[in-house]
Design brief:
Blueprint (H helix, E strand, L loop, with lengths): L8 E6 L3 H6 L7 E5 L9 H14 L6 E5 L8 H11 L3 E4 L5 H13 L7 E6 L2 H5 L1 H8 L7 E6 L1 H8 L11 H13 L3 E4 L8 H14 L3 E4 L5 H7 L4 H15 L8 E4 L2 E4 H25 L10
Parallel strand pairs: 1-2, 1-8, 2-3, 3-4, 4-5, 5-6, 6-7, 7-8
Antiparallel strand pairs: 9-10
Length: about 300
């Protein structure tokens, strides 16, 4: 994926809460999702839509990627949400409760009919058993068109647990097969993929453990419900200094004249293949993007070398 911007932390905020929307502009978070769905009461939906679009129009989010989550296609709010948000032009529109490819394709058609910009991307929230079962088809068919608007998958683990009756427990063991399925589909079709939220926002050790699990499973980042979770997500989903140094060593070794045409080399007693060099290059790109993002947040140029 050519877009290497970090998306380690993705914070939700209710669209009807003006103070929360303003605060998001000051937080050290990679991406924000302004929510029009679950966190907004029915009588506040229109106000949330208005405030979310106004916030996007006002700008000021800096390095933060800005998304707006719509109400589901099955609701009476969807058409108005999509028209207004498409015109407002956030970086991303998040589609709620995606269950079939048509949920994405219909949104793409409507956006095209309304003249929404070609750079606007879609993330599909997978929150139901049917969405999980159809995930490969959703990714395959939604990516078949020329627009290629579908760019990511967001797991709604709370709803998945509720609708399946699964009791995740501290290690989320019953959910892991479905989490891995989402990661597998995302990698097969070149999509981003984000882990679900951790509800006990005051339990920071528990949250950090779940971040570590999510990174081990292959997620690009974690969706968050509280600013207190940002620091841990940013830290855990970033390459650590040892991994960066190892990646640099692999790239340097393959750059040696005697190794340039080799498919595998011996590096410090370990067999390293050309595919490891490709993985190392992606890690270095990611780490450089995080350093640039950190520098942008601080208003200073990035430093060379590992960022942590």
């Amino acid at each position: 994926m050519s877009d290497t911007r970090p998306r380690r932390s993705v914070l939700y905020a209710p669209g009807d809460k003006a103070r929360a929307l303003e605060k998001m502009r000051q937080l050290d978070v990679d991406a924000v999702i302004i929510d029009l769905e679950d966190s907004v009461a029915p009588e506040m939906k229109a106000l949330a839509r208005e405030r979310a679009c106004a916030a996007v129009a006002a700008g000021g989010f800096g390095f933060r990627e800005v998304a707006i989550r719509l109400n589901a296609r099955s609701t009476a709010h969807f058409a108005d949400d999509l028209a207004a948000v498409g015109a407002a032009g956030p970086d991303v529109i998040v589609l709620s409760k995606v269950e079939t490819p048509e949920d994405v394709i219909d949104a793409e058609r409507r956006l095209d009919a309304n003249g929404a910009g070609t750079g606007l991307r879609l993330w599909a929230m997978i929150e139901t058993p049917l969405g999980l079962l159809n995930l490969r088809d959703i990714a395959e068919r939604s990516r078949a068109g020329s627009r290629l608007r579908l760019a990511g998958i967001v797991l709604g683990t709370n709803d998945i647990a509720k609708d399946t009756g699964v009791q995740p427990g501290e290690d989320r063991a019953p959910l892991v097969p479905w989490l891995l399925q989402a990661v597998l589909v995302a990698r097969a079709y070149g999509l981003l993929v984000f882990d679900g939220v951790y509800n006990a926002f005051s339990d920071l050790p528990g949250f950090e453990r779940e971040c570590a699990q999510g990174r081990q499973l292959g997620f690009d980042g974690k969706t968050l419900i509280h600013p207190s979770q940002i620091e841990a997500a940013n830290r855990v989903f970033a390459p650590d200094a040892d991994a960066v140094r190892q990646a640099q060593a692999i790239i340097a070794a393959f750059a040696q004249p005697e190794n340039r045409d080799k498919g595998a080399i011996n590096l410090e007693g370990q067999m390293v293949e050309r595919l490891h060099a490709e993985t190392a290059a992606r890690l270095i790109e990611t780490e450089a993007a995080i350093r640039q993002r950190t520098a942008d947040a601080a208003g200073s140029p990035p430093t060379d070398g590992p960022g942590r």
